[in-house]
Amino acid sequence: MKHKTFFWFILPTFLAMFFFITLPIISVVIQSLHTPHENILITVENCDPFGCKKVTSIDHAATKDLKNEKPLGRFVGLDIYLDRGHLAFDQVKDHWNKSKDLFSFFSLISDLPFYKAIFFTLTFTFTVTPIMLVLGLLIALGVNSINKQLKGLIIFFSLLPMIVTPLIGSIILFWMIDSRGIVGNFLQLMFEDPNLSLKASTFLTWITLIVYGVWHAIPFSFIVFYAGLQTLPKDQIESAQIDGANTFQQTIHIIIPHIMPLITFVTLMQLMDNFRVFEPIIGFNAEAHATSLSWIIFNDLGGETRQLSAAATSSILTIFGIIILLIPVLIKTWKEFDFKK
Amino acid sequence: MKLLLTKFFTTIIFLVSSSAFACSISARVSIVGNEFPAIQTVGSGAKECKGAKVTANLTADHQKINVAGMSSQPAEYTSAIVANTSIVALLNNDLIRPLDDLVKKHGKGLKKNQLITIDGKIMAVAFMANAQHLVYRKDILKKLNIDIPKTYEDMLAAAKKIRASGLVKNPVGGAYKAGWNLAQEFNNMFIGYGGSHFKGNSAEPSVNSDAGIKALKMMKSLSEYMNPDFLTHDSNATNAEFRAGNVAIMNMWGSRAATLVDVDGVSMEVKNGMDIAGPMTVGGGKTPASTLFWDGWTVAKKISDEEAEATFIAMTNAIRPSILDNEDVRKQAVWLIEGYKPTDAARGVFAAAKMNTTPYPMLPYAGLMHSAIGKEIADFMQGKETAEKTLSDIEDAYKASAKEKGFL
Hints:
CATH architecture of the largest domain in chain B: 3-Layer(aba) Sandwich
Structural class of chain B: alpha/beta
Order of helices and strands of chain A: HEEEHEHHHHHHHHHHHHHH
Oligomer: heterodimer
Distance between the termini of chain A: 17 Å
Shape of chain A: globular
CATH superfamily of the largest domain in chain B: Periplasmic binding protein-like II
Number of strands of chain A: 4
Strand order of the largest sheet of chain A: 1-4
Strand content of chain B: 5-15%
Helix content of chain B: 40-55%
Largest interface: A-B, 51 and 66 residues
CATH class of the largest domain in chain A: Mainly Alpha
Number of helices of chain B: 17
Helix content of chain A: over 70%
Strand content of chain A: 5-15%
Radius of gyration of chain B: 23 Å
Largest sheet of chain A: 2 strands, antiparallel
């Protein structure tokens, strides 16, 4: 493509990206460096059906001019990034000095909201992504080898978990795994433990969320790999068969190298998706056991308190997290690209 | 044909005569509020007004949308139905207007104690009171010869007996879902033990105290008699457990108790066995371990005066004394409306008021404290950390957010 043609081709995308992605991110960065002005508190008399009493209230008149002059609030630099709700530098330093070994250090900092969320998010990302890759590939290979007439039907059913809205899917499962639900009851019978509850223990809740994550993400990897399998070089497979290679050897030496770019693509997408895990936590009412960065943002924004600066800071930290996660995959893609050149 | 004509004319006559009493407004009214029977009554009462469009968005997520929906110019919502907890966010952001002039002009039917005044200005009109109190199964207590619990210690003893009898496996219910619900239960217990959330009139926290430790330990003991999934049960789920006969004693909202067993599928045993009583005290204290709430409506600041007037008229119409002529409506809440006579379903909340239950604090930073408690307390309930550690975590979490919001 000529440079000029390329320019006109890419311009609409570039403009849309600039206005709808770059500018909002810049505004979020600015927001994360500011907090609301200090409130001037006054004591006033407050009467309600239960009587009158003196209470503290905000004096809006006193800060009105200041608020109009600087609607963004006061500049606090990295204060929010370092406070207890986020990177918690002071607490981490303190815990580091206090703890004797790495294990106790990690258990201490996992009590801080940001690190607690990071631990779950990373566990979720690094279990769901590989399991989903392997299972997706196996299903694709399986579907590829079955009878043509059955294929359409099987593909349709395999895609169902992805068609269901994540929030709805997780709420349905939430009721099924209830100790009085069909799955929960079955597990109690199977393990002969009438007090077994998937929702009451942190470990079992994590397992549930991970199983749900895999269930929901498999169709994506399956369908991408299945599409890739349709382009397999027939002659290579045939010559491998003549050489006496079994199915496993064919898979390892021909099929996987052939669809490697797709594996990289799926990994990239899933790392991003899983790092932003959110809906299952809401659907499974799992806040007590598992939180993620996205959940923290949602929680700060919702409710009566609306901590905009805290949410902005968590958003920026999420972006950094995704960048760090993707670096290895991006480097790999870059190298492959160079190599082919 | 004749019959049709008669029908037509009677309809017209009926419409004319009924509109003579109904209210008429000349500008749009848009309401946002929580969703439970009494508030639905208020919403449909406002919709009776003719002359302009009246819309109501009643949802349990009202607190998440009312600030945003009233911040724009002009505001999307002309009125928010709030409680003494949720009015604070609107006051903090300066989103509601004083109603003194409108009360003078259109508020003849309102009683003085319905008017919520802050610094001498009327900021909201209350229409009902609410509190959490005891809901229990009298048939089960009678069978086991247990007196109605007056304290949380009684409740624990009763729970022990009920479990031992094998009648109900997890006899205690409670809205202990991590977050707002769980924090509210802590607030009740903390106040019951004589605790105070803040140092004097300042925004400095003081939950890390003896009362805090006792409150947490009592909640932990109660949770041992609850369904093991208690950290996922909000008040809806807890009520469902009660209806299914899986719970025998619980602390529940008065606004829910009235209609608790009025649904299809509840067994006669539960229907006839359900009864209510006042809130319980704890640790030998005199103040009940509960908090008093009022629910009322506000009028947005960022709307035209015409819209404000229409909103005031429609909302006043919704809470006019004549709505109490309907038996079902009378039962729905403890109304603060002129002419209300307490029904049987109101005993719990009335007892709460009589026992001098503490009203929920209307402080600008109370919401931040509430959400810090909700976030940190789950670790203790799961036995992951000590009460002292949880309480100091709450204070640290609160301080971080209060600093960000400019209170400390």
